[in-house]
Amino acid sequence: MTTASGRVWHGVTAAVVAIGVVTQCLVSATSSGGEGFYRENPERVLNVFAYFTIQSNLLLGVTCLLLALGAGRQDSTLFKTLRLNGVLCIAVTGIVYHLVLAGTDSPTGWGWVANLLLHTATPLLGVLGWLLAGPRGRTSPRIAGWSIVFPLLWLAFTLIRGEGTGFYPYPFVDVGDHGYGQVLLNCLFVALLFLALAAGATLLDRRIGRRPVER
Q1: For 112-127, what is each residue's pLDDT tens digit?
Q2: Which of 50, 128, 130, 167 could join 87 in a cystine, given CB atoms 3.0 to 4.6 angstroms apart?
Q3: 26 exposure class (CB count in 10 Å sphere: 0-12, 13-18, 19+)
Q4: Contact between residue 86 and residue 135 where contact means Cβ atoms under 8 Å apart
Q5: Is residue 36 scored above 80 in pLDDT?
Q6: Residue-wise DSSP of 16-27
Q7: What does the alpha-carbon distance between residue 120 and residue 95 come to, in Å, rounded to a whole number?
Q8: pTM for the complete prediction?
Q9: For 167, left (φ over 0), alpha (ψ -120 to 50), or beta?
């Protein structure tokens, strides 16, 4: 894929993320007051951003937008880490949703549209965009190590917040239902998946990076 077409791909990915997140916020804002853990606005809309799905989409969308615009310090450790985070987190979002969570909900209407965009379209666009358009040479074992920080921070935030509010965004992190032992074990499996993807991305980036890039 050429540099120009890669920027277009990243731009489209960022646009799909934005449409998906905005649609989900509108769905949450206008849903029946009796639905969900938080029954009133703005808490109901703000709670949308507690979901790993939304945060991984935002990471992907922001980094893709910067790539599309050619903006930001893209050779910095911070950007490289956030770029890898966006790709890995959106991959984990797609995998975990379709293997574990898909049968736990049945959205309809615009909720179905948001669900499709955030759990299926953006994971495909994000991973394919990284494979086809890169940019290459931005991943290393050190960057892969830094990339685990964000998921760990999300987990810590989720468990601490859940202890105080009783709200857990996903069944597999619900301490009230499963206890800390089972929840930590569930998170360990997800962490191992994340680390495997990070290691695979590092190796694959090196292999693909040896090929000449058309400009």
Answers
A1: 999 999 999 999 999 9
A2: 130
A3: middle
A4: no
A5: no
A6: HHHHHHHHHHHH
A7: 9
A8: 0.89
A9: beta
Tokens 């495909």 correspond to 124
Give the whole-angstrom CA distance, residue 149 versus residue 144: 10
Tell the burial category of 84 from Cβ atoms under 10 Å away from its Cβ (0-12, 13-18, 19+). Answer: buried
Burial of 205 (0-12, 13-18, 19+ CB in 10 A): buried
Give per-residue pLDDT as tens, 153-187. Answer: 999 999 999 999 989 999 889 998 999 999 999 99
Q: What token pair was written down for 185?
A: 């074990």
Give the 3-state secondary structure of residue 188: helix
- Count of other CB atoms within 10 angstroms of residue 88: 30
Helices vs. strands in the chain: H and E counts, helices first: 9, 0
Contact 185, 176 (CB under 8 A): no
Q: What is the chain's Cα-based Rg?
A: 18
Residue 76 φ then ψ, to 5°: -75, 155
User: What is the total residue count of the chain?
Assistant: 215
